[in-house]
Design a protein that fits this description.
By secondary structure, the chain is an all-alpha fold. The protein has helices at residues 3-14, 39-48, 51-55, 73-90, 95-104, 113-124, 129-144, 151-158, 169-193, 203-209, 213-228, 238-256, 262-281, 288-291, 299-309, 312-323.
Length: 332
Amino acid sequence: MTIREQNEALEYRILSPRAAKSREAERERPMEECPVRTKFQRDRDRILHSKSFRRLKHKTQVYITSGDHYRTRMTHSLEVAQISRTIARALRLNEDLTEAIAMGHDVGHTPFGHSGEGALEKLAGHFRHNEQSLRVVKFLERDGRGLNLTRETMDGIVHHTGKNQPRTLEGQIVRTADRIAYLCHDYDDSLRAGLLHEGDLPAVVYAHFGHDSSSMITAMVMDMIRNSTDRDYVRPSDEVKAVMDTFRTFMFEHIYLSKALEHERAQAVFVLNSLFTHFTAHFEEMPEAFIRREERWSRKQIVVDYVSGLTDSYAVQLFTKIFMPPLWQMPV
């Protein structure tokens, strides 16, 4: 019996009957099993070693002109994974599956945060980062071959947001852990940026969750565990969900859509609009790997894939190279 088979058998002994079991997981394309890692561990590793995951370190979460200590999409994904694993372990669900979903949930996000997503939504007619994350892991990675992840991991990735719930409890964990992470950590970053100050949040948020990001995360996680133990679902209590919704509404009004960040958002939209329009008109200037995909997908879709995959810094570099005239040193 291999190490993987031993660990697969162990899952049935120690995990909840409601937990996803790696032995039962399926891939779209059969492949030789790893002698050490379970399918969900392998999913996590494939995402971790992917180019799309590495690019997340240069994609900002909220603050486009971020400093050393502001969150990026990568640090956000790691924080979602940590929160998710804590909840999964407490509920005796599959930690490896929650971690794989958390690592992959944002790999389809655009540069410049939600401003970039909004720009591509208007340009393409339809764009959702969760759908693009699924497209990245299913089709675009590994030169168009995709990562061949399990159906359970892909389901959790595409349904971490939107109207449809994930079909596994592990996916449901990540769906709420994502919100816990971005609310608490975006609040923390906003304090650091000076856009918010202690006491600015609605009183009900402080009353239920405390005054710092650590206590806020703890309060929401504990509520998730208490409300979901021995249940066929994983979600916060109605009372805590209502407070989270109040928290989220406040952050949208005062941070995500705030006038203080309006100029940054407009700059981001201008850059993406310009790049999208340019590569639509000059498709031959796309990287060769993308041009070769024309027989498989439409030019419009390929431009969306390319532009949405750019990091913040590379999008600015491309914009400068294409649209900014060179500076000539004038003789003295």
